[in-house]
Design brief:
It contains six helices and no strands. The radius of gyration is 47 Å and the shape is rod-shaped.
Length: 233
């Protein structure tokens, strides 16, 4: 049994808005439990989250980054799904074309047989002519179908190529996005201390003299004056 005066959607929305507006007055302690976020989307009050100190947001920052990564993966998966659909369409066209070409070969064989029969004056000429005309009509229809399929394969191939490029670009973008993972604590890590500089002496060049050169001859000892005893002897 229907209600005598059913509420319209507009009236229901107005009543719901009035209820939410009066919630802080009726239930002050439970006002946040009836926020619009609980009805549409996250049940967590965004205002309360915004008041969380930065020092205690590490878990939030980590979860937000993981959510962003999940959304990137979802977008990539949707692109891959679209690419798979395009590839299926192209594969279907190729399968239909192969079937059409097989039928063309079968018709060509039947025409060759019929022409050989008629050339040998076998069978009834009138019936043979009707069969041959029917085969030629089938060949014309089949050729038209093959041409239509070939005309569709070109654009379908370009479509697959386009979606393949989109997927590749998205894969690169997702990888770069995940590589730019921010500091979850909000505090940048200290830069590593520079390595100490070790002084290096100038290299000493060792010159090896060539045999027979003046530098290779031993230096002569200085002359020692002879003593008087030696002179007398």
């Amino acid at each position: 049994m229907r209600a005598p005066f059913p509420l319209s959607r507009t009236a229901f929305a107005a009543a719901l808005a009035a209820l939410l507006a009066a919630a802080p007055l009726v239930w002050p302690g439970q006002a946040h439990a009836l926020s619009m976020g609980g009805l549409f989307g996250s049940p967590v009050d965004a205002e309360l989250v915004g008041r969380v100190p930065q020092a205690k947001r590490e878990g939030i920052n980590k979860a937000e980054f993981l959510l962003a990564c999940a959304k990137q993966d979802q977008e990539l998966a949707e692109l891959k799904e679209e690419l798979a659909d395009r590839q299926d369409d192209l594969a279907s066209l190729y399968a239909k074309l192969a079937k059409c070409q097989t039928r063309a070969a079968e018709i060509a064989l039947d025409i060759a047989k019929m022409e050989a029969v008629m050339g040998s004056n076998l069978g009834k000429g009138e019936e043979n002519r009707k069969v041959l005309d029917g085969l030629k009509s089938d060949r014309a229809e089949n050729d038209l179908e093959c041409r239509e399929l070939k005309s569709k394969i070109g654009p379908a191939t370009l479509m697959v190529r386009d979606w393949t490029n989109r997927v590749a670009a998205k894969e690169k973008a997702v990888a770069e996005f995940k590589a730019r993972r921010p500091s979850l604590s909000g505090i940048a890590a200290p830069a590593p201390a520079p390595a100490p500089v070790v002084p290096v002496d100038d290299p000493v060049e060792i010159v090896r003299p060539q045999p027979g050169s003046a530098a290779s001859q031993p230096e002569a000892s200085p002359a020692v004056p002879a003593s008087e005893a030696d002179l007398k002897n």
